[in-house]
Amino acid sequence: MCMNLTGTQGNSFYKRLTALDADNNIINLSGYTASGYVRYSYGSAYTNEDVYVTGSGVLLNLNPIIVSGDAGEAFVSGYLDININRNLMAALPCSYLLYDVQVFSGENYARTIEGGYFIINPEVTY
Amino acid sequence: MKIVDMAQEIYFELGQPIDLSIPAIAYWLRNNIGILNNKLNKSIVVNDVTLEFNPNLGEAEKAIYKKIYECYFYDLKVRQTLNAINSDSLLEVTDGGGTVRKINRNETSKIYLDAKKTAYSELTMMISDYNINDVGPLQVAGDDTVAGSFITDKHYSIRPFNRT
């Protein structure tokens, strides 16, 4: 639930996550959707008047992909892949950024499967 | 200067500590610009889009901000040492003729505290110097640029209504 990721500006980034439920069992992700963002701070989606603005303050959409396999047989693995290309990584500032990845099922179920700092190291070669 | 460059300078000047990294310093610099603003009476902010300082720091401001970070660094070391004392109070173990003596964390924290005091006194002097050098004339708001009028036939007195 709390895992820091480390990447470098301008390098592509790949990470495979495993979705676990509260009892540490792997979640069968069939029928699930997934979402994940990188933000500078928890409050960066809010205006100074404390109004939430959807999509505001997002530095990067992690766009986690649920690994399904050829015939959906991989849903049971609980795997999610994060794959970020080098151009998107180059645009991130060198800092400790915040991220989390959530899975959703139906209208009411949501679970944060991983979150923490996304540590971005600087690059020299652009 | 970009924040990451300042972070790199700080990292190098602190002796490249193994428990510190450039992203961690950059993160701190972005989140604590208010300290510098308070010290120097400035209004520097972090741009929401570029995540860089706006306006950019000059060389003098940068030097002071780096010194502020140095104070924070030693303060952090003191706190880390104090936390370690709570979890590991053992100082010396003697058994079967052999003795193992561990680092006295109390002494270590004193060394860090001294280093912090030194850094803080340097910071105070730097701020004083900055304020002296930064002093400029304030605008004089008044009507002294308006030409005065004189009663030209009474050259003997510039105060014609002074009857004493």
Explained architecture:
The complex is a heterodimer of chains A (126) and B (164). Chain A is mostly beta strands and 126 residues long. Chain A is 4% helix and 41% strand. Chain B has one domain. Chain B contains 5 helices and 4 strands, in the order H-H-H-E-E-H-E-E-H. Chain B is elongated. At the A-B interface, strand 8 of A face helix 1 and helix 2 of B.
Task: Looking at this protein, list some descriptive labels.
A: mainly beta, Immunoglobulin-like, five-stranded mixed sheet, 1 helix, B: 164 residues, mainly alpha, two-stranded antiparallel ribbon, 5 helices, elongated
What does the secondary structure layout of this molecule look like, with pairings?
The complex is a heterodimer of chains A (126) and B (164).
Chain A: E1 5-8, E2 13-18, E3 33-39, E4 58-61, E5 65-66, E6 79-84, H1 86-90, E7 96-105, E8 109-121
Parallel strand pairs in A: 1-8
Antiparallel strand pairs in A: 2-6, 3-4, 3-7, 5-6, 7-8
Chain B: H1 3-13, H2 22-31, H3 33-40, E1 45-46, E2 53-54, H4 59-87, E3 92-95, E4 98-101, H5 105-134
Antiparallel strand pairs in B: 1-2, 3-4
Number of domains of chain A: 1
Tally of DSSP β-strands of chain A: 8
What CATH architecture of chain A do you see? Answer: Sandwich
Overall form of chain A: globular
Radius of gyration of chain A, CA atoms, in whole angstroms: 15 Å
The radius of gyration computed from the alpha-carbon positions of chain B, rounded to a whole number of angstroms, is 28 Å
| Individual helix count of chain A | 1
The count of DSSP E runs of length 2 or more, i.e. the number of strands of chain B, is: 4
**Structural class category of chain A:** mainly beta
Helix content of chain B: 40-55%
CATH topology group of chain A: Immunoglobulin-like
A few lines on this structure:
The complex is a heterodimer of chains A (126) and B (164). Chain A has 126 residues and is mainly beta. Chain A has one helix at residues 86-90, and strands at 5-8, 13-18, 33-39, 58-61, 65-66, 79-84, 96-105, 109-121.
